[in-house]
Amino acid sequence: MEEEKDTVDTIQTQIPEKRAPPREAARAPVRGEETERHMSQAETNPTAPTTPERREHNGRYDLHIHSAISDGTQSLEELVPLIAQTGLAGFALTDHDTASGWDRASRLAEEHGLDFLPGAEFSCRYHYTEDRPRTKTIHLLAYGFDPVHSELAHRVEQIRLSREGRARAILERLAADYPLTWDDVLAQVGEGNAAVGRPHIADALVAAGIVRDRTEAFNRLLYTGSPYYVPQQALDPVEAVRLVREAGGVPVIAHPMSTMRGPALSLDYLGKLVDAGLAGVEVYHRENSAEDRARLLKFIEERRAAGTDLLVTGSSDYHGAGKPNLLGENTTDAATVARIREQIA
Ligand code: AMP
Ligand code: FE
Ligand code: FE
Ligand code: ZN
Question: Which DSSP string corresponds to 29-73?
Fold first, then answer.
């Protein structure tokens, strides 16, 4: 499914996001460290009986999950019991641009016997060519950073607060052609939401019967570069990695290898992020193809040989009904989670 685009823009545009590659068959763990796991329907169905596959999740974590605090469709009260039912040992909440769900998620996790790792996902953008004004958007996951007294928190709060004005600007453009109001958008924004954005506008378009689902809303009207699109403020990726480290957090690049539309993140640029302090790479994500994963693992192996030990994670990027991604479809092992915790300053 399409996550935020590997943006190719002139000034502000991204092209439509790539489609997720088809799911691959489950396979053996790589170097005993991280595996991808694909859940069967039964695994995600809370009422399904426990199966051997469900027990495979034992001890494993899903480190990239969104709630309705950003653009997931489920409240933490709905979401955390579902995570517990998958048989996962723990999870990270990684809502876009906010840490506001951490306290409640941590309490709910404890109630449901889950280990909780606090996180967030930050949008970053950079110019990937010197000669042309093209930019690329990437997402940085950050675990365990100081959400209050840090430069990172300050910068992200500014960006977060600008989200409403930007969403209203998109709505105004849409309202010139479609019968849609700001109230229609607000009706899709859950209580306590901290990061309004295109997904909520998409949901309003669905509710108004203008499109069938979020995907169609993005593909037809909300893709970056669409006449209705207005860009969101974003951090520079290298700066974001530094800010996360300075805030005591652990930066992990999210779904780094979308290649279907626009160029993938180059390994060259990934190297720059590593030099800036990147801690890990989300290798096992449905938007990284098997080939991408192999390239990433090779890169990580080379870096390891040169003395930098990057963490390898796998996660679902679950958004409730907002995307087809299933809880626990990719996971991370407990040893890697322990290493993330060791790095939290
Ligand atoms: P925004 O931050 O408002 O620009 O919205 C970007 C978010 O929209 C991403 O983080 C994704 O979660 C979501 N998104 C992007 N493309 C799609 C799509 N095609 N279908 C569903 N959700 C999408
Ligand atoms: Fe999202
Ligand atoms: Fe993302
Ligand atoms: Zn995400």
Answer: PBTTTB------HHHH-TTSPP-HHHHHTTTEEEEEE--TTTT-S
Distance 337 CA to ligand 4 centre (A): 18
Of the chain, the percentage scoring pLDDT greater than 70 comes to 81
Q: What are phi and psi of 186, to 5 degrees?
A: -55, -35
> Looking at ligand 1, which atom is closest to the CA of residue 123?
2
Q: Which of 265, 236, 267 is nearest to 125 (CA)?
A: 236
- Cβ 251 vs Cβ 141: under 8 Å: yes
Residue type, 258: S
Q: Please name which ligand lies nearest the alpha carbon of 214.
A: 1
pLDDT tens, 47-79? Answer: 333 444 454 677 999 999 999 999 999 999 999
CA distances from 62 to 66, 87, 134, 334 (A): 11, 11, 33, 10
How many Cβ atoms from other residues are within 10 Å of residue 49's Cβ? 7
User: Nearest to residue 90, comparing CAs of 80, 101, 102?
Assistant: 80
CA of 199 to the centre of ligand 1 (A): 6
Question: Is residue 4 in contact with ligand 1, taking CB distance under 6 Å?
Answer: yes
Tell me how far the alpha carbon of residue 101 lies from the centroid of ligand 3, in angstroms: 17
In this structure, are strands 134-143 and 250-253 parallel, antiparallel, or unpaired? antiparallel
Q: How much is the pLDDT for 3?
A: 41
Contacting residues for 247 by C-beta, under 8 A, at least 6 apart: 142, 145, 146, 150, 151, 152, 153
Neighbours of ion ligand 3 (CB under 5 A): 3, 139, 254
d(CA 314, CA 114): 18
Closest CA to 38 of 326, 337, 332, 333: 326
